[in-house]
Amino acid sequence: MRQRAEIRERQEENILKEETVIVLDFGGQYNQLIARRVRECNVYCEIMPYTASLEQIKAMEPKGIIFTGGPNSVYEASSPRCSKEVFGLGIPVLGICYGSQLMAHLLGGAVKTAPVSEYGHTEVEFDTSDVMFEGVSPKGICWMSHTDYIAEAPEGFCVTAHTQACPVAAMSCPERKLYATQFHPEVMHTQEGMRMLGNFVHKICGCKGNWKMDSFVQDSIQSLRQRIGGGKVLCALSGGVDSSVAAVLLSKAVGKQLTCVFVDHGLLRKDEGDEVEAIFGPNGSYELNFVRVNAQQRYYSKLKGIEEPEEKRKIIGAEFIRVFEEEARKIGKVDFLVQGTIYPDVIESGLGKSAVIKSHHNVGGLPDVVDFKEIIEPLRSLFKDEVRKAGLELGIPPHLVFRQPFPGPGLGVRIVGEVTEEKVKIVQEAVAIYREEIAKAGLDKELGQYFAALTNMRSVGVMGDFRTYDYAVALRAVSTSDFMTAEAAPIPWEVLRKVTNRIVNEVKGVNRVLYDCTGKPPGTIEFE
Ligand code: XMP
């Protein structure tokens, strides 16, 4: 709620309020993604819960309303609903996935369990005379994810798209400015999805599109100064892009009131601890206090015998906070704890009614008792590429800003099963080789993320004349812009062959190298 209030304050201060689109949240995975796509159309966008009253919605004077997806069925008694009167406000409404079914259901159409549910890339045909699909190719690919479907559009609606299994993949009633898509135009897998959302926002809602996000950094610095006052701030610096951008933002806002604690949890990439110290430490370029805690052995003993991914994440997260508490006590009274949480971390840890995918280290692992007055998460509403834009605005060097993201729990989520010091060494060496060869091949800038993970699988091999029984390393590389969805990247075979040769020859304990071809969804980027 605080976040929403802050956004509203910013909006009232300096953003053209005449053009707001509301995303009404019914608990789907892509709610912020929709909001962010609207922002990409240069239209201010705010998310409201589906429980918002008609009065609250009207008070925002929205140019348009977008209903999100959600995991429920509209015919369940407990499913999230809004008032039917929202369709009578004269404000354009776009329903997506569950939102489309809700629109159909509330307006007298028929929603049923689909005989064949569709998931993933799906061929679709559009009626391009409908404004929503103006300029879109008549046949294309859309991203589907549903078990129910609209079997019959409500009276007064035209069917404007269909797939083989879905008779109403989109529908519209232009007289009432009501539009709906069963598929997800906001997900990058839907070809020309941005054009469709652009058509809705500009042509149907009539937005001019003159909002820009360039004031984020200045606004944040100002509001952080106000909120923190003369208080002391402790920042959890992991060395990843997100916490680095958060740390620099805080250092610009409150300088030496900020202490960055960097926990070397023994789950970092090779030499990374020293690299982070070189950038943020006393010989680095930022005004802040820097503390490095070498807690490697403490983590290894806590993780001994733990195999379950969520348990590992929670232990790593909780231990992090304990180390911070100890540091905070040494520093004296600390008022605020800063974390580099970004939006995908929040949504995938479960927000509102969305399903929990993973509890992210910097969100889910907080123990009940935290020794700080408040937690500050200045990047909580941003996606990764927006964080990078903020980083550049802050003057952080591009090689840091475009560094590939590294998860808070580090190699702990790249080692399947129990974490041991020996396994950590194996992954560190394998990753170092992979990174070196990817950089040599000039591929590092094209890839969203690439790393080696240690599978928990050991298999038989032969080295020289001897039988081996060693681990398999999995190589992963993905292309993505927002880290919510990703495609496995096609690494040239020559590069893979070289990396494989080097890993099996140079890394003790590995006799097999595999390549992960899975996208996200259905995989996640990290292994655990
Ligand atoms: P997944 O594996 O969820 O990863 O597809 C999406 C992005 O988030 C990063 N990631 C994390 N970042 N704390 C973080 O700060 C975490 O616990 C965490 N887990 C995953 C991951 O590297 C990818 O960029």
Please render the helix and strand layout as text:
Elements: H1 2-14, E1 20-25, H2 31-40, E2 44-49, H3 54-59, E3 64-67, E4 93-96, H4 98-106, E5 110-126, E6 139-152, E7 158-162, E8 170-173, E9 178-181, H5 193-204, H6 216-228, E10 233-237, H7 241-254, E11 258-264, H8 272-280, E12 289-294, H9 296-303, H10 309-331, E13 336-338, H11 343-348, H12 361-364, E14 374-376, H13 384-393, H14 398-401, H15 421-440, E15 449-463, E16 466-479, E17 487-488, H16 493-506, E18 510-515
Parallel strand pairs: 1-2, 1-3, 3-4, 4-9, 10-11, 10-13, 11-12, 13-14, 16-18
Antiparallel strand pairs: 5-6, 5-7, 7-8, 8-9, 15-16, 16-17
Helix pairs in contact: 6-7, 7-13, 15-16
The protein binds xanthosine-5'-monophosphate.
Question: Would you mind describing this structure in some detail?
Answer:
With 528 residues, the chain is α/β, with parallel strands linked by helices. 33% of the residues lie in helices and 24% in strands. It folds into 3 domains: 188 residues, Rossmann fold, CATH 3.40.50.880; 189 residues, 3-Layer(aba) Sandwich (Rossmann fold); 100 residues, GMP Synthetase, Chain A, domain 3 (2-Layer Sandwich). The strands form 3 sheets. The chain has a 9-stranded mixed beta sheet with strand order 2-1-3-4-9-8-7-5-6, with helices on both faces. The chain has a 5-stranded parallel beta sheet with strand order 12-11-10-13-14, sandwiched between helices. Strands 15, 16, 17 and 18 form a 4-stranded mixed beta sheet that branches. The radius of gyration is 25 Å and the shape is globular. It binds xanthosine-5'-monophosphate. Xanthosine-5'-monophosphate binds next to α11 and α12.
